[in-house]
Amino acid sequence: MASPIPLAKKQQINLLRGWPSPHLLPADLLSAACQRVLADPVESVPILQYAPDEGYQPLRERLAQWLGRHYGVEPDANRICITGGASQNLACVLQSFTDPHYTRAVWMVAPCYHLAATIFEDSGFAGRLRAVPEDDEGIDIEELERRIKALESKERIESQAEPKPFKNPGPFRKLYRHVIYAVPTCSNPSGKTMSVRRRESLVKLARKYDALVISDDVYDFLQWPLDGAVDPQRPPEMRLPRLCDIDMSLGRAENDSQGFGHTVSNGSFSKIAGPGVRTGWAEGTPAFVLGLSKTGSSMSGGAPSQLCAAMLADLLRTGELESFIETKTRPELQRRHKIMMDAVKEHLEPLGAVGRESSVSGESIYGGYFVWLTLTQGPPGVLVSDAAVKEENIIIGRGDMFAVRGDEQGAKFDQNIRLCFSWEPEEALVDGVRRLGLLIKRMQGNLAHYEKMAAEVKDSDRPVSSWV
Ligand SMILES: Cc1ncc(COP(=O)(O)O)c(C=O)c1O
């Protein structure tokens, strides 16, 4: 969609778009893998046919090995099924394990990945998305519990009878009472990583309230130490247990007679091989994974992305994908992050912008695609975004985009902006931040003018992620 706001005639810099830079797309590796997997009819015929519901078996097995090594857990292909990526799988999880009448609410750690809201709304949760604030360690567990209790007791008072589900989950699936949505590692947008103790408390709370935690673990392979040089040989230091690993380590919960567990890890190849492959994986208990594979759209033709799944399985077999991530993707993102943070220090910090260097309190670790800034001396993020489009042809993420839709008061981000360092060329990252600095300075000197300008902009004309 083209921008409805007339753009300044300067080179456009898009710091909103959360895409990988074209250099980070392993086209040649994927092309060679495609040739290999289609060369022999013994392999190519099943690959080009309908897939098993749980997905391409060699990819399940190789993922189990790779993830097992990475997270230090016992590999088990029965805990994994192949998906069409994190977004598609989020929709499938909701189709199979939630009910818009029975499931009370979707609790979203805020600021949240804004594009998830529509997926929840499509599954019948419009008006029932609830914000849960986070602090430096991640989700505020006490506040989440307080809000869950308040909701449950309000609903008990308002309607005596237990809500009856619309759906019949059948023998392979169950309906959860609550959903908690989190991006615990290198979160989009805040860049934060949840501490281990918060992870443990979150899993325990999910067990207590019959909640399913859907954990988008899409940035887990993109973490780097902040100190010192970019060293491709140096392995990432941070391998915190996923929520699903913690859930598994606690054994089956007392009230979980069928062993569905209370967490699902939503993994994706989008950030490590390319969003266009539209392939990912879900990891949970074997019962949960079996149930997920019984989602109607998987039963009709099998798991999505069968051809890409075969190509990616081949790249895991040869080790080329792992090596591409280690030697190219992660070091390039690390370098880009440093370039952007240096520019932020020079051009924005003197104007009161505060970022976080580390994604985990007390550790020099960062990762993901985004820098999240608080404009402590103003102006509000929405004003900066409007003026950046008009005067600089720069597109940024304004904080209020990442508030929880329908519960904007539950956690507010009016003073924040999100800048993406993965997409634009490195020179544009610096130039974009420099031009934003000049703009914010002008704005701080004449706020009334910019308030008037923003008042004339319709919300529907403001940047959205699909802008090109
Ligand atoms: C937290 C989060 N979840 C999911 C996605 C989308 O993942 P996929 O491309 O696998 O659908 C993104 C992409 O930006 C993301 O940041």
Q: What does this 3D model show about the protein?
A:
This protein has helices at residues 27-39, 41-48, 57-71, 86-97, 116-125, 141-158, 196-208, 243-249, 286-293, 296-299, 306-318, 320-348, 381-392, 426-445, 447-455; strands at 13-14, 80-83, 105-110, 129-135, 138-139, 178-182, 211-216, 223-225, 263-268, 280-283, 353-354, 365-367, 370-375, 394-395, 397-398, 416-420. The chain is an alpha/beta fold and 468 residues long. It has two domains: 13-25 and 330-461, Aspartate Aminotransferase, domain 1 (Alpha-Beta Complex), CATH 3.90.1150.10; 27-322, Aspartate Aminotransferase, domain 2. The radius of gyration is 22 Å and the shape is globular. The protein binds pyridoxal-5'-phosphate. Pyridoxal-5'-phosphate binds next to α4.
